[in-house]
Every structure is written in C-alpha cells, then in structure tokens.
Design brief:
The protein is an alpha/beta fold and about 270 residues long. It has 2 domains: about 140 residues, P-loop containing nucleotide triphosphate hydrolases (Rossmann fold, 3-Layer(aba) Sandwich); about 120 residues, no CATH class. About 35% of the residues lie in helices and about 20% in strands. It has a 5-stranded parallel sheet, with helices on both faces. Strands 2-1-4 form a 3-stranded antiparallel sheet, covered by helices on one side. Strand 6 and strand 7 form a beta hairpin. Helix 3 runs antiparallel to helix 4, helix 4 packs antiparallel against helix 5 and helix 5 runs parallel beside helix 6. The protein is globular. The chain starts with 6 loop residues before the first strand and ends in a 6-residue tail after the last strand.
C-alpha cells in the first residue's frame, strides 16, 4: 500500500542543465522561497520538481527512479508519494488544442481560466465532502465539530470578499460553484476577473480544497499579476487557510518576504555547485 508523506525533505538535481550545476535544496516543512537573478534556474528547479512529483503521482515512476537526475526525499522516510498542487501564474491565451477540445465552457480562454475551470469541480467535491461530514457530526450531536468543519469555507469566502472589496465584488454564497456579485446585483463569472484576481482566487481555492491536510504547494513566481499588498499577504493567507501546507516557491519579489519570511529564503547559488 502506498504511504503518503507529510512534506518534502529535500530536492536534488544532478545537472540543472546539460553539464550544469548540481542542486541540493534542503527544505523546511512550512515555507521555502527560492530567489536569484534571471536565468539562474529558479523556474527550472520548480518545474523539474513538479514534473517528477506528477510522474510519481501517476505511478509512471517510483520515487527512487525519477528522471532528469532528480531525487526527492520525503518525511517520513518510508513514504512513497506526497500529495501536491502546482500553481501556474501566467495568464496567457489557451492555445493547446487538446485542452480546448476538452472544454464545454467557451468562456475559458486563458491558462488561469483553465486552472479555475478545473478547480470548480474540486470545489464542488469539497463542498459535498464537508457537507456529509457536517451532517454526520450534527446527527451525533457534535455541533462544535460541525462548526469547525465548515469554518475553512467561510474563512475562504471572507478572504476573497475582503481582497476584492475595492472592486465591489463578493462571492455569491448561494451558488454551488464560484461566481461573484458585483455592485450588489450583477452576477459575473470568475473568468471575467482581472488576471491578478484570477490568480489569487486560483491559489486560495487550491489551498481550500485540500481541506487542511498536509501537502506540498509549488508556485513559480506567484507575484506576477498581484498588487504589492497582495504579494506581501500571500504566504500568510495560504498559511491561515491550511497551516499544514508546505509552500515551495520561486520569486523575484521582495514583497513576498517582507512579512517575516526572510529566514525562509534560499539563493540558488547557496544550493548549487
């Protein structure tokens, strides 16, 4: 039986590029921030790690036979896989024909739209699961337990409402899927949001639907479309929604580390030789 890990202990890449540097990145269980100048390999490290984790998750390879010279160590040591999510920050037009053919919603036009489109189903599944759990707890008379199960969803909704307050958007709490009411009356879809709003929504939805379980969240330059205030708050918002998430990200933005995360920053030069 496969055993799930609590977090990633280290990522090792034998050759970052052909004939390139040997990378050994020892990770903390909470927040890990990779920094460095353009072209030094930050995105490559994140992408190689995500690709390897995906192949392990799909049972295409075992943990001990990862390609690209990538070695991933987990905690506990006898774990064989880890639950993880990858956030892509670029809101580029959706060009892949195989993705377009799968879509039943013509409003999905960009890569962030595609992420949100897939998250809608996970959000519906999440609501069904917590709804069933709440019914079980209420039936057994555990009202406090039921309130605790429902709290993260409300916290997520409150976060989004507060973040989007300047543009007068609120989550429609009567809808089973994510949509918004703007100005008190107009209903808009998440695909009508700005790139920064889509990005923040995708990140926080991804964190919510993991239901506060331990997992790894990989992000490559998540600050791309975010206002500096949102950049500064991003890590804390993620940690509030899921304190058990292991955050692994690359960034150019000093704002991401301004709120007490300086000690969690690693320069690419520090982990390569």
């Amino acid at each position: 039986m496969k055993k799930r890990a609590e977090y990633i202990q280290s990522i090792e890449i034998q050759a970052l590029w052909k004939g390139g540097r040997h990378i050994v990145w020892n990770l903390q269980p909470d927040v890990n921030i990779l920094s460095g100048i353009n072209g030094v390999g930050k995105s490559t490290i994140i992408n190689h790690s995500a690709r390897t984790l995906s192949m392990i998750d799909k049972d295409e390879i075992r943990l001990d036979e990862a390609p690209q010279g990538v070695t991933i160590k987990l905690v506990p040591e006898d774990a064989t896989y880890i639950k993880f999510d990858v956030i892509r920050s670029f809101d580029r037009p959706l060009l892949h024909s195989d993705l377009l053919e799968k879509l039943s919603d013509s409003r999905v036009k960009t890569e962030l739209d595609w992420q949100i489109y897939r998250l809608q189903k996970r959000y519906l599944d999440y609501q069904v699961n917590i709804g069933n759990r709440i019914i079980e707890l209420l039936t057994s008379g555990d009202q406090q337990g039921a309130a605790e199960v429902s709290a993260p969803k409300k916290q997520f909704q409150d976060m989004i409402d507060e973040l989007f307050a300047d543009t007068h958007k609120k989550i429609d709490r009567k809808s089973n899927e994510i949509q918004f009411i703007q100005g008190g009356q107009e209903v808009i879809t998440p695909y009508q949001l700005s790139s920064g709003e889509k990005q923040m929504l995708a990140i926080l939805m991804t964190v919510l639907v993991e239901n506060r379980e331990p997992y790894a969240l990989l992000m490559d330059e998540p600050e791309i479309s975010l206002h500096i205030d949102w950049q500064q708050r991003l890590i804390d918002l993620i940690r509030q929604l899921n304190p058990h998430a292991q955050i692994i990200l690359s960034t150019h933005s000093p704002a991401l580390i301004m709120d007490g995360w300086m000690s969690n920053v690693t320069e690419v030069e520090e982990i390569s030789n």
